[in-house]
From TrEMBL, chain A:
Keywords associated with the record: ATP-binding, Cytoplasm, Ligase, Nucleotide-binding, Purine biosynthesis
GO cellular component: cytoplasm
Compartments where found: Cytoplasm
Name recorded for this polypeptide: Phosphoribosylformylglycinamidine synthase subunit PurS
Reactions catalysed: N(2)-formyl-N(1)-(5-phospho-beta-D-ribosyl)glycinamide + L-glutamine + ATP + H2O = 2-formamido-N(1)-(5-O-phospho-beta-D-ribosyl)acetamidine + L-glutamate + ADP + phosphate + H(+)
Its job: Part of the phosphoribosylformylglycinamidine synthase complex involved in the purines biosynthetic pathway. Catalyzes the ATP-dependent conversion of formylglycinamide ribonucleotide (FGAR) and glutamine to yield formylglycinamidine ribonucleotide (FGAM) and glutamate. The FGAM synthase complex is composed of three subunits. PurQ produces an ammonia molecule by converting glutamine to glutamate. PurL transfers the ammonia molecule to FGAR to form FGAM in an ATP-dependent manner.
Family classification: Belongs to the PurS family.
Pathway(s) where this gene product acts: Purine metabolism; IMP biosynthesis via de novo pathway; 5-amino-1-(5-phospho-D-ribosyl)imidazole from N(2)-formyl-N(1)-(5-phospho-D-ribosyl)glycinamide: step 1/2
Gene: purS
Enzyme class: ligase
Assigned EC number: 6.3.5.3
Major localization listed first in the record, in broad terms: cytoplasm
Subunit composition and interactions: Part of the FGAM synthase complex composed of 1 PurL, 1 PurQ and 2 PurS subunits.
Automatic annotation (TrEMBL), chain B:
Species of the source: Tropicibacter naphthalenivorans
Cellular-component GO terms for this entry: cytoplasm
Signal peptide: none
Active site: C86, H194, E196
Keywords carried by this UniProt record: ATP-binding, Cytoplasm, Glutamine amidotransferase, Hydrolase, Ligase, Nucleotide-binding, Purine biosynthesis
UniProt protein name: Phosphoribosylformylglycinamidine synthase subunit PurQ
Quaternary context: Part of the FGAM synthase complex composed of 1 PurL, 1 PurQ and 2 PurS subunits.
Amino acid sequence: MKVRVHVMLKQGVLDPQGEAVRHALGALGFEGVGSVRQGKVIELDLADGTSDETIGQMCEKLLANTVIESYRIEHL
Amino acid sequence: MKAAVIVFPGSNCDRDMARAFEQAGLQVDMVWHKDTALPSGVDIIGVPGGFSFGDYLRCGAIAANAPIIQEVKAHADRGGYVLGVCNGFQVLTETGLLPGALLRNAGLKYICRTVGLTVATEDSVYTKGYGKGTEIGLPIAHHDGNYFADDATLDALESEDRVAFRYTANPNGAARDIAGILSANRRVLGMMPHPERASEAAHGNDDGARLFAHLTTELASA
């Protein structure tokens, strides 16, 4: 089974990289870009039947730092 | 008195830290991250700067799950001393031994220069030798030194006098100018600036030497 984990900085945590991307889009002439947040996508190929609970533990223990990041698990 | 310096793949200040401990009179053992035991009788563990595991995933995240880290945590839980510098600070936040996290510098650039610091508390073996309010200069060399914690955590750090060093001119966007913090028992210090890289005359700056010298004096009298 394949799972995709989306890791994003939490709301309220400054994202200087997203901010730089927003500026760069503006510099290219794209108007109306209100904000940009940059995150990570991690794709996992797991043994069939791996529980959401186990995947959640993977996220909590390693894939995301929950002090600053939130995560979302997507089954493919 | 004994120090152990943990070495990860990608550590690059491990020898500098060992040298600073030795110059201060400590006996130093280097400990590989895959080891599962510390040498006996270790008083203080140094978690050095560098780019452990290539900063993959997040700075310090992979190192924080290395086998030796269980022993580092057990040492800290027993009331042992731990000094984490730069990547070592990032590792200590990732392990949960210190609160908060280190984000990408607000200006996005890697910064490598000497910065001004104010010693924010003298209530620790690391900072007592300076005295509160003393200004020193130490080098920083990091891309992710922007200290972040939620307001409640920052308030607690300040009310418990656990901010060890503050930047005199904030280089990286760190919350409340924080450059280094102490654990609740004041024995674990994490800091982004490098005292070990400014600890003898040949470095051109020895402001960091007092940290190691005083630490050794305190450990000897403990």
